[in-house]
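FORM 7B: Structural annotation worksheet

SECTION A. Query
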Amino acid sequence: MNTYLEEYTSFMANVRHKSSNTVESYKRDVTQYITYLNESGIQDATLATKTTILSYLLSLQKKGKANSTVSRSLASLRSFYLFMMQNGMVSSNPTSNLEAPHVEKKLPQILSGSDVERLLEQPEPSDNKGIRDKAMLELLYATGIRVSELINLDISDVNLQMSFIRCRGGKKERIIPMGNKAKEAVGYYINNARAYMIKSDGEMALFVNCSGMRLSRQGFWKLIKYYGAKAGIKAQMTPHTLRHSFAAHLLENGADLHSIQEMMGHADISSTQVYSRALNSKLKDVYAKAHPRA
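SECTION B. Predicted structure
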């Protein structure tokens, strides 16, 4: 069964061009499923039936797994069996017509304008690292790009003269404008810090770590947590916090959903509409606390 898994993950990475994080997530889910099959005496994934899949999903629920985890596992298995069906390994997909448990979509964590201001003020531009961190935070909030997209930016993706970046995350390239503050911070970093941080003139990465190599997702995670704590922000800080705040603040100030969808690279408008729900929820809280007859 490991051969199926290796072929599947290779297909997802090299043909479907899924991100390394997505491929690892699919691989983890399918590996856990294969372990379950082995423990159940089923030595070949092609012999699994709809009942087998249902039993596996029920076993996850009995272990106390959240509905979101069960739903994600089913999505991974659907993709896995679709791949095997398309390659003639199975004649039908045993996951077809199976319904995932209902998952209540959580509203995204959104920072207030004052929280964002405090966060962006934290990096001290007194050394190369502080200059870089200031540029990264400003750019993230100015463009709403994903952290994976931020760290994958090359210096050639930045056009300071025209005030935009070229983002190549997902299935298509998109051009995103950046405001003056971000342009200033990124320009200052490129002209005054990056040249001293890179190991060689051939380095393409825009943002590099202290060893002169492309910054990692884990490296940025530590930075955002550090600066969030330093700013005294009580909300839970994640790499997506500034992305969510970017979208919500644009919407709050009159931007239309389709423009925000385009900038964020959402394939489906429903992914962008969650910010409308978040704002409505926030308004209800404000009303309940402020109105004398609420």
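SECTION C. Observations
The chain has a mean pLDDT of 85. Residues 113-289 form a domain with the hpI Integrase; Chain A fold (CATH 1.10.443.10).

SECTION D. Sign-off
Analyst initials: ____
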